[in-house]
Amino acid sequence: SPQLPDGQDLPLPPVILGELGKDPQKPTVCFYGHVDVQPAKKEDGWKTDPYTLTEINGMYLSGNLYGRGATDNKGPVLAWINAVETFRALKLAMPVNFKFVIEGMEEAGSLGLEKLLEEEKQCFFSDVDYIVISDNLWLSNKKPALTYGSRGNACFSVEVK
Predict the structure, then answer these.
(1) Can 106 be counted among the known catalytic residues?
(2) Signal peptide span per the entry (predicted)?
(3) pLDDT (tens digit per residue) in 52-75
(4) For a surface tag, which of 55, 63, 87, 153 has the fewest beta carbons within 10 Å of its beta carbon?
């Protein structure tokens, strides 16, 4: 676990691992997303409370939804959950086996995630055929972004006295 500047250990939030389906005839797709956010204050330019999801200009789901993390990355995480829910509600066969990795430390460099991936590579991840990184925003109402590559993070702490 990471340490605060005063040396105190900071416990990490748990990473959610979920799965649905184990059909060996279907590929297994693992979807990654995160639910943590960057800090925000109303004084930063928000028209509404950044931590209260607010709809503007329309009735529910026809207007624009504003709130910290609505696009990065709670919206994309919820989109996959809604897709699974829709297949189940319509009693349609799932086209793939689903695995989900949902974490709460991405904005801080995914602390603890690498260790979990290493620990679970022979168990939870052993049958994964594809990984979808669902961590991006829509560029407009008609142009979703497609993540096709990622780069590393450099994290550090600076204490000024």
Answers:
(1) yes
(2) none
(3) 988 888 665 566 788 898 888 888
(4) 153
